[in-house]
Design goal:
Elements (H helix, E strand, L loop, with lengths): L1 H14 L1 E4 L5 H16 L4 E2 L17 E4 L7 H21 L3 E11 L5 E4 L9 E8 L12 E6 L5 E6 L6 E5 L4 E4 L6 E10 L1
Antiparallel strand pairs: 1-9, 2-3, 3-4, 4-11, 5-10, 6-9, 6-11, 7-8, 7-10
């Protein structure tokens, strides 16, 4: 797995983002998607908010529903995902000296037609978020289903580029939380992911 990380990490260091397909196998995607649906049916999800603490719900800005993952109550499949993220953090620290100390993740479910307007993940009052990570849990996602993640990339000439990422199941994207603004486009079906942040002290 470490060799698979190398081009991914090169992208983060050179461009501010990296994309890895098949970070999760199809069976792992299915297992986590099942966990997500079970927890939502049990009423554990809530509408996501904006700002530090995410206490203000503003559906004109974002429309996803979320549930934070907790190692103490994680299923075996959720615990396996968090363990793999922990191994990834260790590898990043060994190879890139990023000083990552912690991470936090939540399920994110975007109902049909919902979105997340352009924003930056790092708060002005809290600079601990170093890297944003999204791992998609969608089944047989097609380009015309929508729901793309768009990264806005500053360029040397002062202009701005864009990178558009289709939320294919098992795909992992990681990007600089403090530098790259991004948004989520509306989709024609439910859009599922595990989303989180790798944090410094």
């Amino acid at each position: 797995m470490n060799l698979l990380y190398e081009p991914f990490i090169d992208g983060i260091l050179s461009d501010g983002y990296g994309i890895m397909d098949d970070f999760l196998s199809p069976s792992e995607v299915t297992a986590l998607r099942t966990c997500l649906h079970n927890r939502r049916e049990a009423g554990q999800f809530r509408l996501a908010g904006v700002g530090n603490g995410q206490v203000t719900v503003t559906t004109a800005i974002r429309g996803d529903e979320i549930l934070w993952l907790d190692e103490a109550t994680a299923t075996a499949d959720e615990a396996a995902f968090l363990e793999r993220i922990g191994q990834f953090v260790q590898y990043l620290n060994q190879t890139c000296y990023l000083g990552l100390r912690d991470f936090e993740f939540h399920y994110a479910l975007y109902p049909t037609g919902t979105f997340y307007k352009r924003h930056l993940d790092r708060f002005r009052s809290d600079s601990r978020r170093k890297l944003s990570v999204v791992c998609y849990l969608n089944d047989n996602w097609q380009e015309n289903d929508g729901g793309q993640l768009v990264l806005y990339l500053p360029e040397a000439d002062g202009l701005e580029g864009q990178m558009t990422v289709t939320p294919v199941g098992g795909r992992l994207i990681c990007f600089d939380s403090g530098q790259l603004e991004h948004e989520v486009f509306p989709a024609t079906r439910e859009r599922l992911s595990v989303t989180g942040w790798l944090k410094t002290a």
